[in-house]
Amino acid sequence: MQRNGIPFARGATGVNGPQFVVSRVRITMDTALIGEGLRIARLSLWRKLRGWKRYPGDIPQICDGILNDCWNGRYYQASAGHFCQFYTRDFGIASPFLEKEKSVATLRYALERFSKRGRVTTSITPSGRCFDFPVFAPDSLAFLFRALSVAKDKQLLNEYRGFLQEQIDKWCRIVLDDDGFVRRNIHFSSMRDHSIRSSSCYDNSMALLLKEAARSCGFRTGITLTASKFIKEFWADDHFKDERDTDTSLSGDANVVPFWLGIIDNKKMARLALHCLDDAGMTLPVPLAYSPSKAASPKMIKAEMLVPNWEGDTRWMQLGLMYAAVAKKNDKQLFEKAKQAITNNIRKNQNILEVFTKEGKPYTSLFYHADEGMLWGAALSKSLF
Description:
Elements: E1 2-3, E2 6-7, H1 10-13, E3 19-22, E4 25-28, H2 32-50, H3 59-70, E5 86-87, H4 88-94, H5 100-117, E6 123-124, E7 130-131, H6 138-151, H7 154-159, H8 161-175, H9 201-216, H10 227-234, H11 257-260, H12 267-279, E8 315-316, H13 317-330, H14 332-349, E9 355-356, H15 375-384
Antiparallel strand pairs: 1-2, 3-4, 5-6, 6-7, 8-9
């Protein structure tokens, strides 16, 4: 069906909650978010009062402890803290570095629930309810297929082949414009899930990821975007711009994720982008910030009021570890600098925390405290250090 001339699929955005309008598309806020928000706020308050768990040992031992705590017997949680949900994005990021048997079990858990719900979502609550935060995210299906391509479990792929192909076809109708790029002026969720961006570099990189990961699993996509078209549209002399219709906007995810995923494999471009981030002051005291300053951030959803500047010039360990991985491959000097900052941070906290202020302190607001024991942190750290 169409609304305002734009393809809209009820199953892709949810219909079980109060509605609000973002841009030209009507999106729904899932009522599951209310319960999850209250639970996270309660656990954040506990962390404020009592602090976070401190794992004994060196960094590999800390990582092992976190990965053990993130496995709950059914699936890999996004964290050993308050994000005890299944997060499709977080699992997809960590998947190449996790135990295969547990990864396959996690994928089976997720696919059982997604197929019953009729769509792939960003998250599944601890009670098994599928929901999107804050709205439909193109990277959910892309990272799910990344995990499936890593697991290479033919039985699982064959069992859910019909559902997965249906999700790819629906994804293309919702996400892509006639020119093969992600639609403009539609709010999609993403790694930077509080931001409201128009055909972002990150979302377009997810089209390339889905195209490759689905193909490797034996699926067709119809995605026509190529790496060369992507570069032509987003490369701005020494970095990838954040959105299609902006000239020089700089963001951490745009200049790390395409190289980290291997979507763009160009050493010269990678070095230029890494140095651009470093020169902008986004890599210290720990990498990496989404924006060089709070003022340079894009428009954010209203929930940002509860966590001011949560995805502005704060430092995210998730991005920082990706940045370090790209630097390790392309610029040894920047890698050593990033490695030192990250290892010092992990040793100081004896844990892998989620997000920090630009001064390097664990992020906190009235209703929130940075999460602990991050699945992606432990997985990426094991691969790097």
